[in-house]
Write a structure and sequence with these properties.
heterodimer, A: 6-stranded mixed β-sheet, 20 strands, B: MetI-like fold, 11 helices
Chain lengths: ~375, ~230
């Protein structure tokens, strides 16, 4: 399901939203921004839970069907969009099974995966006879996600689904959502103000600020964007995706492939062939013009300088290096810049000191020399 | 063999209370829902109108209803054009009067119950594919069960107990508008205290039993809910 939305909306409070988004038919599109940026409003408009006022210009369509324009409005129950709210919103008068059946009974002609499969995916088999009020925050949210999947939803809209659960439950739920991303061939629109969730899950990202789109692109493009990282200081980091190649038990390392080159991280649990995401802090990446010899640094990749942060009074600057179609950030000093005479297009060796596995948030694995 | 006049009055009373309650469920439920959910200014006007019978002497309401139901009154004319019958001093007049009189007792508990339902649950139901009517019966009704029981019992009991309005618009016609409260009044006026006791005590026990049932049910559900939490 494609969703296209073109929205100009003004609230009496003075808040305005002016955005155009195109949701791709698979993968996770994230709406990211601080609270009040309009990301939840946008999501509710997509679902039909908000419809704006007569003076607003709202055009939303899906696969050629008009959901909303000046003359049409398709109510939420006819859009087949699954909505996961910040609160689980489980019906308190039904048990878990009753909540799930509520959804499947209304799926109509829409395809949805079988109940036992959904329960397996989300690990809620043992909760079926429980009352929703007895569940922990994390369990309740997993049931809510299962309920949405059973409703025959053709896309999944998630409005800060981890906003109401504690840190432990967040780490518990994220892998389930990640799994759905890989299992389902329907689009997921994910609203969050948590950068860790976005870099972990998202494929496409729309960054919203005060009702406008500040930046849009793939999560890898944005995560390595110089403008977005310039204010981050030591927290500046790029995100890349690499494929598990093999596990080296004797050294306790896992070898990954990144654009035809190898990268080593601490032994991880994902089987070979899995794509996993890595977070590489800019301050832990150094650049060299010659291949380093006899170094203790395990991860040295070949790349090409693509972009330099404009010079400022800062003693250091960020350099964006392209490595096999992806981008890595490096923080170097102005002095090094002059000594190496770095310019866009120059081939460099990227030495990476630490790598954090994003796909293993529960145990942020890092590797140091 | 003619029916015992008190039994006849009891029969009329039950018919009146039952008809009124059923009609209130049809009219009052959407009204309570609208009042609970609307943000429109109409609420500011409609809410006090609904509540008026709580503070007004029933005779005031009865007086205006009588004027309206008179053959030359608006309601009376309309009724005549509709049915070809007069309205004042009939059972139908009592039903209409009772609906107005018992409206707040039905609408208010229900409105409170509706207001307590989180919008998020309704939004969830909508995105799961439930249309407005489906949402009402599958989410709103089960979650406002206590409100419904209270509203129904109060409306019923309150209609059984009404006097002033009945006297104004119904009069005292045996088999047509003579309800229990009027019969009781008659007994007292004619100093038939034994008969008056029979009716008064009956009404007292009935009212007590009904209220005990409502409170009992509410407590039962509250405890069941608490046990779930």
């Amino acid at each position: 399901m494609h969703i296209n939305a073109n929205i100009t909306l003004t609230r009496p409070s003075g808040f305005s939203l002016e955005v155009a988004v195109a949701i791709k038919p698979t993968g996770v599109t994230a709406l990211y921004g601080p609270s009040g940026s309009g990301k939840s409003t946008l999501l509710k408009l997509l679902a039909g839970l908000e419809r704006g006022s007569a003076t607003d210009q709202i055009n939303i369509s899906s696969d050629g069907d008009i959901w909303q324009d000046a003359r049409h409005f398709v109510p939420p129950h006819k859009r087949h969009v699954g909505f996961v709210f910040q609160q689980p919103q489980l019906f308190p008068h039904l048990d878990v099974r009753g909540n799930l059946d509520y959804a499947s009974r209304r799926a109509g002609s829409q395809q949805s995966p079988p109940l036992n499969q959904v329960c397996d995916w989300l690990g809620i088999n043992h909760l079926l006879t429980a009352s929703p009020t007895k569940l922990s925050g994390g369990e309740a949210q997993r049931v809510a996600i299962a309920r949405v999947l059973l409703s025959g939803a053709r896309c999944l809209l998630m409005d800060e689904p981890l906003g109401s659960v504690d840190h432990v439950a967040r780490l518990q739920i994220l892998p389930y959502i990640d799994r759905l991303r890989r299992l389902l061939d329907i689009p997921i629109v994910y609203v969050s103000h948590g950068l860790d969730e976005i870099t972990y899950l998202a494929d496409e990202v729309y960054m919203l600020e005060q009702g406008r789109i500040k930046a849009a692109g793939t999560v890898f493009e944005l995560a390595s964007s110089l403008t977005l990282n310039s204010q981050e200081g030591d927290a500046a980091a790029a995100v890349v995706e690499a494929r598990v190649e093999y596990h080296d038990q004797s050294f306790g390392l896992t070898c990954l492939r990144l654009g035809g080159q190898s990268i080593h991280v601490s032994l991880c649990s994902q089987p070979p062939g899995t794509d996993i995401r890595l977070r590489i802090p800019a301050r832990d990446v150094s650049l060299a013009l010659q291949a380093p010899v006899q170094t203790s640094i395990l991860n040295v990749l070949e790349g090409v300088v693509s972009e330099l942060e404009p010079l400022s009074t800062n003693p250091s600057l960020l350099v964006r290096v392209q490595v096999g179609g992806q981008y890595i950030l490096s923080r170097i000093t102005r002095k090094s810049l002059l000594q190496l005479d770095l310019q866009p297009g120059r081939a460099v060796y990227v030495q990476i000191k630490t790598v954090a596995l994003l796909s293993d948030l529960t145990q942020q694995v890092t590797i140091s020399p | 063999m003619p029916m015992d006049p008190d039994i006849q009055a009891l029969w009329i009373t039950l018919q009146l209370a039952l008809t009124t309650t059923l009609l209130l469920m049809l009219v009052g439920t959407p009204l309570a829902w609208w009042l609970a959910r609307t943000k429109s200014l109409g609420r500011v006007i409609l809410e006090p109108i609904v509540a008026l019978p709580i503070v007004l002497p029933p005779t005031v309401l009865g007086f205006y209803l009588l004027l309206a139901m008179a053959p030359d009154g608006l309601l009376g004319q309309w009724w005549f054009s509709l049915t070809g019958e007069r309205l004042a001093f009939t059972f139908n007049a009592l039903v209409i009067g009772s609906i107005f009189y018992s409206l707040p007792f039905y609408v208010q508990p229900l409105q409170v119950a509706f207001e307590n339902i989180q919008q998020g649950l309704l939004d969830a139901a909508a995105t799961l594919g439930a249309g407005p009517t489906d949402r009402f019966f599958s989410v709103v009704v089960p979650l406002s069960r206590r409100g419904f029981i209270t509203a129904i019992c109060l409306a019923f009991a309150h209609t059984v107990g009404e006097f002033g309005i009945v006297l104004m618009i119904g009069g005292n016609i045996p088999g047509e508008t003579r309800v229990l409260s009027i019969a009781l009044f008659d007994h007292v006026e004619s100093l038939q205290y034994a008969a008056a006791h029979r009716l008064a005590l009956g009404l007292l026990i009935f009212s007590f039993a009904l209220l005990a049932l409502v409170y009992g049910l509410n407590r039962h559900w509250q405890m069941r809910l608490a046990a779930r939490h």
